[in-house]
Design a protein that fits this description.
The chain is α/β, with parallel strands linked by helices and 484 residues long. The chain has helices spanning 16-31, 51-65, 73-80, 98-103, 123-132, 152-163, 181-191, 194-197, 222-247, 256-269, 275-281, 300-304, 402-406, 413-423, 432-450, 467-474; strands at residues 7-11, 40-45, 83-87, 112-116, 140-144, 171-173, 205-213, 282-288, 314-319, 331-336, 343-350, 366-372, 376-384, 393-401, 456-460. The structure holds 6-O-phosphono-beta-D-glucopyranose. It is an enzyme of class 1 (oxidoreductase).
Length: 484
């Protein structure tokens, strides 16, 4: 694709996200020739740094976070020429904005993006100040990072507040899971392969399980995480998005409107959780001290440096989708920090043979979408065991490793998303009604947990969560699939 020229303002430019993700992603896009040399990437933060100071920081970030085989000194130097810095509190409309304004192109047709990577309470003041300073041209867009609020009411405040200045077509709510190639590939698998789509329903599918397991603890993000917890941090956004891609009806076209309409229908069809459901169909837990890989790791409270906290770092939920396609198919979701391994997967287990002619009961077939790592897809098939003299069955696996299959590097999720925001393509961004529908389903669970309807459990660091999470599936005759 042709190189585009644009102005991209990063609000919160000294933060972790900018250094770890945004600058390295832009570097890759630049290296691939997608970014014109007249482009300006303008970091804005309150710190009093010179442009040279900021470029030094940016260079360090690239050295740390760009893959070694992508890094080269000449390209880095050229790229840093695009990077600017302005010291400014962008949530304050009254200060002197002239430093920023003088860097922005006066060409109204040139894409201008404000990427707000600050605390969500600053989103509305920032949008207000941008509007007040008359910086919104026809080609201006604002990107909002998650979390959009902490519940329905605060999400509405942000959406209303930002919406006073920006139209919905200009607001890009980012969910980096939609930037993952393997998440986008859910659509290709389902809607470009009739053999899958024809069995993609309650007639053939017994259950679906979505896992996002991490080995990291809460790290330095304690102050944010302790107020959020796993439900807000991972489920309200990432995992409900994955679920809606797995469950949605085929959109009439691959367009932002059609795709988001169909995702929305799934979010709305999630069965609301009553207090009774919350007691029986959810599990919440916090990691305690443990021995991942044989090494002692502290518990959450010690990581946090606080004597008490009831924040969940692990959860499992049994969800139901009330549609003709999915009636009677449980969707299990689980996610956690400090689990035994890092893996994000979607497992679709098919229904067993209605009548077995073999002595062995074949294992039901399962389709595994490996979102990360070891990106790929596999289908297990019951097969005749060639080693047995009698007719015995054994599982065999059809397995595609995407990196090998396509012999290409897998781009980081932010690369696609940043360039889509520049182009103004909303297909991979979240619409306001999706955010609201997600919160509508999440909020009763939050409130139920606050009332302790489902007590908090603990699990040792380095394990797959508490035993009650296994019972959640065992009750229905299923098990979590591990190491797949
Ligand atoms: C972020 C969460 O949105 O996603 C983090 O805030 C989490 O807590 C991260 O670690 C997981 O992203 P990924 O791409 O590593 O699965």
């Amino acid at each position: 694709s042709e190189a585009v020229a644009f102005d991209f303002v990063i609000v919160g430019a000294t933060g972790d996200l900018t250094m770890r993700k945004l600058l390295p992603a832009f570097y890759e896009c630049f290296r691939r020739g997608q970014i014109d040399r007249t482009t300006k990437i303008i970091g804005v933060a309150r710190s009093d740094l010179s442009i040279q100071d900021y470029r030094v920081k940016a260079e360090e970030a690239l050295r740390d976070f760009v893959a070694a085989d992508s890094y080269d000194d000449v390209t880095v130097r050229d790229f840093l020429g695009l990077v600017h810095y302005v010291s400014l509190d962008m949530s304050d409309r009254a200060t002197d904005w002239s430093g920023l304004i003088s860097l922005l192109s006066t060409n109204g047709g040139r894409p201008r993006v404000f990427y707000v990577a600050t605390a969500p309470r600053l989103y509305v003041p920032t949008a207000d100040a941008i509007g007040h300073n008359k910086l919104i041209t026809e080609s201006t867009r604002i990107v909002l990072e998650k979390p959009i609020g902490t519940d329905q009411a605060t999400a509405a405040e942000i959406n209303d507040g930002v919406g006073r200045y920006f139209t919905e077509e200009q607001i890009f709510r980012i969910d980096h899971y939609l930037g993952k190639q393997t998440v986008q590939n859910i659509l290709a698998l389902r809607f470009a392969n009739p053999i899958l789509e024809r069995v993609w329903n309650t007639d053939s599918i017994a259950h679906v399980q979505i896992t996002a397991a991490e080995t990291v603890g809460v790290g330095k993000r304690g102050p944010y995480y302790d107020n959020a917890g796993a439900l807000r941090d991972m489920v309200q956004n990432h995992l409900l998005q994955v679920l809606s891609l797995v469950a949605m009806e085929p959109p009439t076209a691959f367009s932002a409107m059609d795709l988001r309409d169909e995702k929305l229908k799934i979010l709305r069809a999630l069965k609301p959780m009553s207090d009774h459901d919350i007691a029986t169909d959810t599990v919440r837990a916090q990691y305690g001290e443990g021995h991942p890989n044989g090494k002692l790791a502290p518990g959450y409270l010690e990581d946090l440096g606080a004597p008490t906290s009831t924040t969940e770092t692990y959860l499992a939920i049994r969800a139901e989708i009330r549609t003709a396609r999915w009636a009677g198919v449980p969707f299990y979701i689980r996610t956690g920090k400090r689990m035994a391994s890092k893996e994000t997967t979607v497992v679709v287990e098919f229904r067993p043979q209605p009548w077995a002619i073999f002595a062995d009961n074949p294992e039901p077939s399962q389709l595994v979408l490996r979102i990360q790592p070891n990106e790929g897809v596999s289908l297990s098939l019951a097969s005749k065991d060639p080693a047995s003299e009698q007719y015995r069955l054994k599982e065999a696996v059809l397995d595609v490793d995407y990196v090998k299959a396509f012999n290409t590097r897998y781009p980081d999720s932010y690369e696609d998303l940043l360039m889509a925001a520049v182009r103004g393509d909303q297909v991979l961004f979240i619409r306001r009604d999706e955010v609201e529908a997600s919160w509508r389903w999440i909020e009763p669970i939050l409130r139920g947990w606050e009332k302790n309807i489902r007590p908090l459990e603990t699990y040792p660091a380095g394990t797959q969560g508490p035993a009650s999470s296994d019972q959640l599936l065992a009750r229905d005759g299923f098990v979590w699939k591990e190491n797949i």
